[in-house]
């Protein structure tokens, strides 16, 4: 039931790009993305509500394909501050249960 | 406008003792979620509450764990007779409604000796 994220971990050099995927076996009506730095609480990045919707925030953007039940997070020209663990989150349709994906650990090196 | 407040930040208990974790949601937020996180792992859903109601507790162990969100005061996650396996970070999150983004507290790190 838990959305599966890929890759599990990725190491980048500053300035490189990365894509993080989130796939669900259940229908998704919306997807949220969060970043958690080590020892801290997760922080909301963005929400995608409609199939095919794309959003951008600075150099981080995301897409949501409702039909494929998946979302992707795009990080371009990565900065050291992008390091952390990224989680997709979603509310299971028909319930009030809000669950998170398996997580992707991202490390950006200078 | 204060964020989600959790306390204590760190809690040390001996096996068999009780642990009480508190969470005050953001002002205006009526939805509270509790999650458990082991080191280097993801966020595992435990329970979802609204004021005076447990809406979904499917992620809570059947024994020793309970949660409440009273009409007045913070939400409480209670763990009775703690065991070493209960050691984890417990995060509380709140939202203003369904399918809204979650705002997280700083978490409580529970250590059971």
Structure description:
- The complex is a heterodimer of chains A (110) and B (113).
- By secondary structure, chain A is mainly β.
- Chain A has strands at residues 4-6, 9-13, 18-23, 31-36, 43-48, 54-57, 60-65, 70-75, 84-91, 98-100, 104-109.
- In chain A, strand 9 (84-91) and strand 10 (98-100) form a beta hairpin.
- Chain A is globular, with a radius of gyration of 13 Å.
- Chain B contains no helices and 11 strands.
pLDDT averaged over residues of chain A: 90
- The total of helices of chain A stands at 0
Instruction: Specify the helix fraction band of chain A.
Output: under 10%
Spans of chain B with pLDDT under 50 lasting ≥5 residues?
none
Uncertain runs of chain A: none
Q: Which series of helices and strands of chain B comes N to C?
A: EEEEEEEEEEE
Number of strands of chain A: 11
- Class of secondary structure makeup of chain A: mainly beta
Q: What multimeric state do the chains show? A: heterodimer
Tell me the total number of β-strands of chain B: 11
What is the CA–CA distance across the termini of chain B? 37 Å
Distance between the termini of chain A: 37 Å
Helical residues, percent of chain B: under 10%
Greatest interface:
A-B, 23 and 21 residues
